């Protein structure tokens, strides 16, 4: 039996310093992604004179494929080598990205930079998720994920609006990408010098792990191979697989918002600064909303929030397709962000509920493989439909898929939160764990 350090404690409050530091690190991870949200679609059209939406979205495809694969390896490597080495590797990969975007002589350089960005985001974001789940313990897992994802996507939003301002006043390049370079330097420094390893906290939770009283997880024992973890998370286990498909569809519509929304807004005659506002509002509401929805999922459970969130996103996308004014698009962006906030931390918390601590990092990696594969699927689907039938048709297709995903969750997923299968929803040992 593996010996566990007796001084370790689970809970956000018990690990507040490290938990807060990891929130900051993930904000920097989100900032590195946010440097592209407003500027890159405009750079593609105005600087590189790209024609055809499918070709333009190659950078989203490259990002999505590499991030999805990196998520999987982040989970397996975190179990094998520890969390901190994977986090550091992710930051090292990000170093060339701003430089490549600034000096890119052709669109191929932008695509190559997004390959590296996908690796960076997969390794760093996945690892901060895993580390926060390690520290938080089971009672406040939803809150932990809400804080993590809020930090990342608020940083995406803040950086999107800031880079829009910089682009409007100083040009599309290089000013917006210098901000990304500063994020990389700070993130690497904090991760290398101050962040501590958290794998022992997962081992501590494994020693305290109790099975569900309904016997639903009896087949999900601690000793699962990578192949079994992949199969359960992606296909066989009802809650895990329902979460995986919902995550994929969620990021499918995020890929659409990232790659095509700025162009749709530009064709309506909106200025760069207004496009920047719309590009920022959606992740801002998404990010801030998770401060509420993550905690609510600890009280109300996961399934209802996920189902409702997918349906709200579908309605918001339909409004984007119908609207043609800044005001209506602003309303749609708010609702799209709210729906995503209901879903994003809750899906991660559901994965943490079901997966045993011994293979939870791998399950998170597999889930994020499926989820971020949605970027690639969304880039291809939206690009092809937009080329054939126009931008609004692409938005309608994704809206329908998002609604269908919500129905799948309603039918297939069971409630995963521990309160549904414990005699006392807040066990004495968990009180004060925040």
TrEMBL record:
GO terms for cellular component: plasma membrane. Signal peptide: none annotated. Residues 1-199, 239-434 form the Major facilitator superfamily (MFS) profile domain. The lineage of its organism: Bacteria, Bacillati, Actinomycetota, Actinomycetes, Pseudonocardiales. It is a multi-pass membrane protein. It comes from Amycolatopsis bartoniae. Pfam families: MFS_1. PANTHER family: INTEGRAL MEMBRANE TRANSPORT PROTEIN, RESISTANCE PROTEIN MDTM, PUTATIVE-RELATED-RELATED. It is found in: Cell membrane. The chain crosses the membrane at residues 12-33, 53-74, 86-103, 109-130, 151-171, 177-195, 305-323, 329-352, 395-414. GO terms for molecular function: transmembrane transporter activity. Keywords: Cell membrane, Membrane, Transmembrane, Transmembrane helix, Transport. This is MFS transporter. InterPro entries: MFS (IPR011701), MFS_dom (IPR020846), MFS_trans_sf (IPR036259), MFS_Transporters (IPR050171).
């Amino acid at each position: 039996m593996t010996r566990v350090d007796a001084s370790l404690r689970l809970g956000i409050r018990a690990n507040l310093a490290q938990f807060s530091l990891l929130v900051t690190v993930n904000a920097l991870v989100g900032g590195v992604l946010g440097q592209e949200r407003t500027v890159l679609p405009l750079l593609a059209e105005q600087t590189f004179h790209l024609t055809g939406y499918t070709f333009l979205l190659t950078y989203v495809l490259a990002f999505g494929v590499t991030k999805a694969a990196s998520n999987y390896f982040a989970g397996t490597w975190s179990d094998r080598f520890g969390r901190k080495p994977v986090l550091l590797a992710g930051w090292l990969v990000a170093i060339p990205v701003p430089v490549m975007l600034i000096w890119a002589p052709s669109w191929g350089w932008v695509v190559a930079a997004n390959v590296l960005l996908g690796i960076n985001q997969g390794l760093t974001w996945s690892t901060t998720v895993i580390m926060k789940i390690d520290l938080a313990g089971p009672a406040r897992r939803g809150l932990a994920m809400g804080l993590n994802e809020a930090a990342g996507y608020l940083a995406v939003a803040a950086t999107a609006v800031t880079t829009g301002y910089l682009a409007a006043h100083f040009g599309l390049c290089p000013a917006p990408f210098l901000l990304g370079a500063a994020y990389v330097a700070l993130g690497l420094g904090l991760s290398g010098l101050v962040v501590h390893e958290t794998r022992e906290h997962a081992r501590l939770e494994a020693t305290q792990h109790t099975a569900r009283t309904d016997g639903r997880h009896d087949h999900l024992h601690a000793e699962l191979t990578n192949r079994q973890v992949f199969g359960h998370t992606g296909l066989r286990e009802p809650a895990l697989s329902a979460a995986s498909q919902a995550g994929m569809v969620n990021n499918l519509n995020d890929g659409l918002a990232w790659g095509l929304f700025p162009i749709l807004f530009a064709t309506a005659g909106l200025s760069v600064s207004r496009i920047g506002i719309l590009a920022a509002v959606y992740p801002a509401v998404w990010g801030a909303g998770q401060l509420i929805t993550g905690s609510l999922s600890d009280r109300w459970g996961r399934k209802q929030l996920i189902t409702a969130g997918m349906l709200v996103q579908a309605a918001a996308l339909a409004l984007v397709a119908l609207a043609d004014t800044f005001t209506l698009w602003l309303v749609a962006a708010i609702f799209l962000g709210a729906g995503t906030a209901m879903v994003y931390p809750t899906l991660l918390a559901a994965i943490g509920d079901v997966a045993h601590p011994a293979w939870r990092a791998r399950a998170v990696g597999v889930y994020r493989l499926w989820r971020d594969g949605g970027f690639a699927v969304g880039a291809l689907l939206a690009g092809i439909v937009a080329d054939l039938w126009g931008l609004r048709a692409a938005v309608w297709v994704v809206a329908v898929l998002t609604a269908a995903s919500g129905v799948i969750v309603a039918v297939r997923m069971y409630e995963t939160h521990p309160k549904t299968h414990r005699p006392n929803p807040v066990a004495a040992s968990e009180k004060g764990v925040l």
